[in-house]
C-alpha cells in the first residue's frame, strides 16, 4: 500500500536522488543532461525550502515507510480562459510498475478537484513510452505539441 504525505525539507536528498530519472529517455527541449539535472534540482530544492503558493509537493512511501516517489505540481493559469489548474512539473518514482506513479497522479487530481479546477496538465518526452502509457491509461491525452528550435 502506498501512503502519501506532504514533502518536507528533510526529503531534499531523496528528491534530488531521483532527478536523474528525468533524463533516462533523453533531455527535453535540446537541453543537456547536466542542464536538466542541475536545473530540476535547483527548482525542487527551492520548492522544498520556500514553497510556492498553491503548489502540491507530495512524497509517496511504501508499506515499510520507505520513500518511493514524489510529485511536484504548480498552479498555472489557462492562456485562453485565465482559469487556474494544476500542472505536474515533476513526478519521479524509485521503481517503475509499483503503483507509485498512479497514486501520486490520483493525489494531484484529488487536490485539483478540491479546488474546483477543471483539469491537470503535464509534460513528458516522446521517448518515455512507459510514462506515456501510464498517463494515457489514466485518461490524459495530447493537448498540443511543443516545438523548440535551438538558435546558435
Walk me through what this model shows.
There is one protein chain. The protein has 152 residues and is of the alpha+beta class. It has one domain (3-137): Aminopeptidase, CATH 3.40.630. The protein is 32% helix and 22% strand. The chain has four helices and five strands, in the order βααβββαβα. It has helices at residues 12-18, 33-50, 100-114, 129-137; strands at 3-6, 56-61, 67-77, 84-93, 120-122. A five-stranded mixed sheet has the order 1-2-3-4-5, sandwiched between helices. β2 and β3 form a beta hairpin. The longest helix has 18 residues, at 33-50. The chain is globular. The relative contact order is 0.16. The model has no long low-confidence stretch (mean pLDDT 94).
CATH class: Alpha Beta
Total strands: the figure is: 5
What is the 3D shape? globular
CATH fold group: Aminopeptidase
Q: Which spans of ≥5 residues are poorly predicted at pLDDT below 50?
A: none
What is the spatial order of strands in the main beta sheet? Answer: 1-2-3-4-5
Mean pLDDT: 94
Distance between the termini: 49 Å
The number of domains is 1
**Oligomerization category of the chains in this entry:** single chain
Strand content: 15-25%
Descriptive terms for the model:
single chain, 152 residues, alpha+beta, Aminopeptidase, five-stranded mixed beta sheet
Helix and strand arrangement:
Elements: E1 3-6, H1 12-18, H2 33-50, E2 56-61, E3 67-77, E4 84-93, H3 100-114, E5 120-122, H4 129-137
Parallel strand pairs: 4-5
Antiparallel strand pairs: 1-2, 2-3, 3-4
Amino acid at each position: 500500500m502506498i501512503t502519501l504525505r506532504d514533502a518536507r525539507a528533510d526529503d531534499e536528498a531523496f528528491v534530488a536522488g531521483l532527478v536523474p530519472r528525468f533524463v533516462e529517455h533523453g533531455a527535453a527541449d535540446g537541453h543537456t543532461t547536466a542542464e536538466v539535472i542541475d536545473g530540476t534540482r535547483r527548482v525542487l530544492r527551492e520548492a522544498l525550502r520556500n514553497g510556492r503558493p498553491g503548489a502540491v509537493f507530495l512524497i509517496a512511501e511504501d508499506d515499510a515507510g520507505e520513500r518511493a516517489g514524489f510529485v511536484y505540481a504548480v498552479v498555472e493559469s489557462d492562456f485562453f480562459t485565465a482559469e487556474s489548474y494544476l500542472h505536474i512539473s515533476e513526478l519521479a518514482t524509485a521503481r517503475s510498475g509499483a503503483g507509485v506513479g498512479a497514486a501520486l497522479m490520483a493525489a494531484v487530481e484529488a487536490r485539483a478537484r478540491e479546488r474546483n479546477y477543471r483539469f491537470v496538465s503535464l509534460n513528458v518526452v516522446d521517448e518515455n513510452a512507459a510514462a506515456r502509457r501510464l498517463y494515457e491509461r489514466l485518461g490524459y491525452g495530447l493537448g498540443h505539441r511543443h516545438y523548440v528550435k535551438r538558435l546558435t
